[in-house]
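Hi Q.,

Before the meeting this afternoon, I wanted you to have the acetyl coenzyme *A prediction in hand. No need to reply - just skim if you have a minute. The sequence and ligand are here:
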Amino acid sequence: MSRWDLETVYVEKKDGVAWITINRPEQRNAMSPQVHFDMSTVLDELEFDDEVQVLVLTGAGKAWCGGQDLKLFFKELDNKPKERTKAYSASQYWRWHKLFTYPKPTIAMVNGYCFGGGFTQLIACDFAIAADDATFGLSEVNWGIIPGGFVSKALNECIGMRDIMVYAMTGEPFDAKEAARSRLITKAVPGDQLEAETQKLCDTLLQLNPAVLKATKEAVKNVRNMDDVPAFDFLGSKLLELQFVDKENGRAKGMDQFIQDKSYRPGLEPYKRSSTEA
Ligand code: ACO
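Predicted structure with the ligand bound:
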């Protein structure tokens, strides 16, 4: 295992997985401008790190993310337009532009509190697994702001209007079971099984062809606002592109394993990558 420490974030790399931890436990991992700068650096770096195939995003201590830092991100930047612009740009860059279509699978491992602006990266991750005692909340309405940044838009990507209205317009906190019911998260698990459940999902993803995972994610996420004709065109092009960028040649070899060798059934298992390396 190797470890990389930044001022507000640390990364542990182990067996193909980068465990990224926002490390401001005393402030409940509230996002200061420095968190945004550090997370931007981390995501840019790990994108090209061949040792890393899957990313897990979590928080130190009892919070996953306490939202934007009300003091350092909001109040102290009120009269500093240049610093505010830099912090806002970094904040949107890593939490949505980068993370939503990150070229590797991403998992939010929600260990505790998740509030306000933290919803953006929660929704941007491909999967979200939460400890059943984690607490979620859109607290903005309690103190005179809206779920801004990108939160209101991101919510519409993954849950229905009835649930958004309850969360955003009452500001009342809710638990992981409720978050799973509304599909804000993938699933809730007992707290003492959170890491093991996350590792299990990592193991599944690690067995799969990374080029195919990347293309699948781009396909699903990029067509969501397209009309039918451009969507057909985009998906057709993606499929063709995959045959050129997939170094494992998974399509041809997977078909051989099924049709000729009869050594696997694609409906039930991944094809055997070890025997397909170019
Ligand atoms: N911004 C700045 N500081 C924060 C934040 C935050 N979002 N969240 C927690 N902190 C700080 C507290 O000020 C406190 O600092 P101090 O020790 O210097 O007094 C420290 O973290 C611990 O906070 P407590 O409230 O004592 O911790 P507790 O475990 O009792 O409660 C909780 C945690 C529920 C997360 C609470 O701190 C809270 O309600 N925080 C605000 C959450 C929120 O509304 N976030 C949305 C922000 S708006 C947005 O993101 C767009």
